[in-house]
Amino acid sequence: MLAMFELLKSFLFALLMVPVMITMILSLIYGFGKIFNLISHKNDHSSSL
């Protein structure tokens, strides 16, 4: 019974961590895109920022 509870607990933890990790990875990709976009458009004076 205790092993079943441990298995269920770890399964719920893994299930909870999946969207958290997906959000972290996507925000990291978005952040790197923003940073490289700013770097690449730094010399562009015609941009209306």
Automatic annotation (TrEMBL):
Subcellular location: Cell membrane
Record field: transmembrane: 12-32
GO cellular component: plasma membrane
GO aspect biological process, one term: xenobiotic detoxification by transmembrane export across the plasma membrane
Major subcellular location class: membrane
A Pfam family of this chain: AcrZ
InterPro entries for this protein: AcrZ, MEP_Accessory_AcrZ
Membrane topology: Single-pass membrane protein
Keyword terms of this UniProt record: Antibiotic resistance, Cell membrane, Membrane, Transmembrane, Transmembrane helix, Transport
Alphabetized GO MF terms: xenobiotic transmembrane transporter activity
Family label: Belongs to the AcrZ family.
Function summary: AcrA-AcrB-AcrZ-TolC is a drug efflux protein complex with a broad substrate specificity. This protein binds to AcrB and is required for efflux of some but not all substrates, suggesting it may influence the specificity of drug export.
Assembly and oligomerization: Part of the AcrA-AcrB-AcrZ-TolC efflux pump, interacts directly with AcrB.
Official protein name in the record: Multidrug efflux pump accessory protein AcrZ
Gene name for this UniProt entry: acrZ
